[in-house]
Design a protein that fits this description.
By secondary structure, this protein is α/β, with parallel strands linked by helices. The chain folds into 2 domains: 396 residues, no CATH class; 135 residues, STAS domain (Transcription Regulator spoIIAA, 2-Layer Sandwich). It contains 26 helices and 9 strands. The strands form 3 sheets. Strands 3-6-7-8-9 form a 5-stranded mixed sheet, with helices on both faces. The protein has a two-stranded antiparallel ribbon with strand order 1-2. Strands 4-5 form a two-stranded antiparallel ribbon. α3 packs antiparallel against α15 and α10 packs antiparallel against α11. The longest helix has 34 residues. It is elongated.
Amino acid sequence: MKLRRAIEFRPKLWSCLKNYDKELFSRDLMAGIIVGIVAIPLAIAFGIASGVGPTEGLVTAIIAGLLISLFGGSKVQIGGPTGAFIVIIYGIIQQYGLGGLAIATVMAGIILILMGLFRLGTIIKFMPYPIIVGFTGGIAITIFSTQMNDLFGLGLEQVPANFVDKWICYFHHLDRIDWWAFGVGLASIAVINLTPRISKKIPGSLAAIILMTLLCWLLKRFAGIDSIRTIGDLYQLPSGLPTFRLPSLGELSLFDTIEQLLPVAFTIAMLGAIESLLSAMVADGVIGDRHDSNTELIGQGIANLVSPFFGGIPATGAIARTMANINNGGRTPVAGIVHTAVLLLVLLLLGPLVGLIPMPCLAGVLIMVAYNMSGWRTIRSMCRLEMSGILVLFTTLLLTVIFDLTIAIEVGLVMAIVLFMKRIMESTHISVLHDEMEIHHDGERDERLVIPAHTEVYEIDGPFFFGIATKFEELARLRDAEPIRIIRMRKVSFIDATGLHNLEIFITASQQQGQRVILSGVNASVYKEIERGGIVAMVGRENVLDHIHKAIKRAEELSKEFDA
């Protein structure tokens, strides 16, 4: 039964088509056309910024976007290349080439499918928020820094991948600034920001590309200004249907390739899972629906598994395009399918026009993408919170910028876990009571209990895990203990392996000194753990009790033995 439940796969498209009608189709058709238009500049820009090209960006948006709509777990999710992957893809290409990128993406797709099959979708949602904000902000800074070459028209053929070296290179070549290119870049940013004030239906990035492409063509045709580089000057223009191709392994064997690329594949999978599920959660809040997170992961995995065989790059759910879909009336995955059809028409029919798009204009588009994803307002508000969250956030951000996303997420997670454990340890208290103790009742008067002679009570207030277990052991060892020890565990919600081990050591040491141990307030789940761990057998079932009154009564019985 558990295995059958673990492999449930229910794409939203299947359920949406059961009650589909003409009204829904007309809304999805209009939303899909608009989102497809919105996606054109973004797919091209993300492809180029990632180090591949405009064709690869469009192919990814078409194939991955189609598969995510067909097999995903959200009604309105729009998939494709996103800004978050730019840094990772660029680094993989620099180190392993295009073949390595394709293999890493396929591996990431397999990982995503396995995550969905093993129902890990809900767990991924628990990624600490400061880490998400930190690496998103770091990616935004990195994207911004990669666009300076095209924004200023420096014309550098090789720009260092390292963040610090990149900016040193820029400053060394400031004398090569092309002011016409810089003007086009600034004008693009202005158009993107001003367009929503004129019409919210027209994407600002598309308006900027159309106007700046026309402007650059006029400057070249009538003013002889041809220093502004275009997509056609640097990349092969998109044309024809994408063809199937096997990724090249290079000189390494398949096993060696997998071994080297597994860390980056895992990073791609984790980033894809986080971004797609966050996008789906945001969409749920707007349309009042509930996505299937595990099906969504499987759909994302299928998209990333197939797309590289046609020249695609990593893809995930895109929040901006998903919101554009919702705002324009899209309510089923059919809108996502229509959006891919629009992109396919662009790939087949408008390749020569794509080649006229100026690179400074694309730099302006990506700079605005970086600004929108930076989350600077969120970072500012989080700076008012506790210091531990701020530390995790800025550590993740700086590591993303200076090193890479893999290191940032690993270090950020470790820091978050350590700080969480520290907080739990600080919130868990152990007190030692003699003579009498207070019993607190909800809504009733507190009660005082007399502790029998030769007895002391250790009250544990919080989970008994590895951090607090050592603290308990040290406290118990330092004391001149009474012969009867009651360990009150009513607030112990769980106990881990280290807690069991330390409890066993404590009981063994006590029994060797002739002391008796009573466990009080043990809940059902903790009882199962200590029974499996042999603790119940060590102290005797009669000494494991569910209430302090029973434990006190048992201590009174045992104290008579010591009086005698």
